[in-house]
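Hi U.,

Before I forget, here's the chain from the pilot set. I'm dumping it here mostly so it's searchable later in email.
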Amino acid sequence: MAGIVAAGLAVAASTGCSVPVDAVAGISMSDDGHLLGVMMVCGHRIDGATAYVDSEDVNKERTVGSWTADRPLTAGLATWSLQSPSTGWTVSSSLTRLAPKTTYILYGWTKDSSWSSGSVSFDLTDIGRISPGTVRYDDISADGDESPITVPLAEFKARACKDT
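Structure:
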C-alpha cells in the first residue's frame, strides 16, 4: 500500500495535482550511528513517513521503509530511527538495505491524504556526510528551486517551515 501511495504522490506531483504540503522531511544521524527520520510539522499534522527508491519510471519506484506515528504529529519537530524500532512509531515496513548509486526519497503523509511533507532525496554518499546534530533536507528557494542542504538541527527548526 505504501508503494501505491508513493507512486500516487509521484504521479500527482508530476501532473500538477498534489496533496498540500505543510511539513518538511529530513534525515539525520544519531550519536550511535543510526539513520534518523526528521519531520518538522508546520501547522497541521502528519501521520507517517515512507522512504522509496526514486525513479523517473513510476513502475521502478519501490518502498524501502515505512513508519506510522502512534499519534498524529502536530506542529513541531519529530525524529525517529529509520533502522530500528522507535518509541511512538510503528514500523509498517522495515528499512531495507540501501544500495550504492541509488537515490532515495523520504516524505511524510496523512492517512486521508489531506497533508504531506516536502520530501528529501539522499543516497549512501549523502548519508556518509551527515553528522549527529545536523539535518539534510531539500531547501526551497524563493523562486521554487529545490536544493539539498545540511544544516544544524537548530537552523532546520528555525527555517524549514518558512519554505512551505
